[in-house]
Amino acid sequence: MNRLGTIMFRGLVAMLPAILTIYILFWLVRSAETVLGGMLKVLLPVGWYIPGMGLLAGIAATFLFGLGLNAFMVRRLLDLSEKVADQIPVIKTLYGSLKDFIGFFANQRDSQFSQVVSIELEFGGKPMRLIGFVTRSDFSTLPAGIAEEDEIAVYLPLSYQIGGYTVIVPRSAVKPINISTHRAMGFVVTGGMAADKGHADKTTP
Asked: How far apart are CA 128 and CA 139, in angstroms?
């Protein structure tokens, strides 16, 4: 029975990421089809609507919005809407948090963000290293006092949680690690269990 339970557990662990990914994609497609498809059914003449047009409309709207961001007036309207949202307490908190969270992962192509580093601390007289991600090295646009010259901001994610700490440390206090952001994040959030994409770390300390 123990062996059977172990096999079942391993199968569940292997299947769960794929199942969740498929479910999220299905939810996104279904939501686009339900919301935008419902709007098209109202706007189009009877009999013109074809299943799947809602999804295509969502893809087209996303593309056009991204294209429109290059236009000066669209950027100004977007900035204005963000300023209005910043004046509403609850919306300000939700919108700001979601924007920062999504932007954190969307900016991985930025060479500054893609730098993975380790910070060495001392715990009980023993050296300890934390893995983090450099998020900012230029503080010129921020109020004085947040950081000194030659300091950087490092985000330290927590294992098995959505959250972490942002610390301001001297550049000399960190050591670069030659690893991709994706692999490093996977290693940290799984408590060191994920050594590579799709593989478990079977090494012993």
From this structure: 28
User: For the chain, how far is it from start to end, CA to CA, in angstroms?
Assistant: 30
Side by side, the strands of the sheet bearing 151-157 are 164-170, 151-157, 126-136, 116-123, 174-177
pTM for the model: 0.49
Tokens 């391993």 belong to residue: 10
- Give Dmax (Cα) for the chain: 76
User: How far is 193 from 12, CA to CA, in rounded Å?
Assistant: 16
Helices marked H in 69-199: 72-85, 89-106, 181-189
Q: pLDDT tens, 23-64?
A: 888 888 888 888 888 888 888 888 788 888 888 888 888 777
Beta bridge partners of 169: 152
The span from the CA of 180 to the CA of 131, in Å, is: 12
- Total count of residues recorded for the chain: 205
Q: In this predicted model, what pLDDT tens digit does every residue of 150-203 receive, in sequence order?
A: 899 998 888 876 678 889 999 999 999 988 887 888 888 788 776 554 444 443
The single residue listed with the structure tokens 């192509």 is 109
- Residue 86 neighbours by CB distance under 10 Å: 12
Spatial neighbors of 54 by CB under 8 A, at least 6 apart, are 32, 33, 34, 35, 36, 37, 38, 39, 40
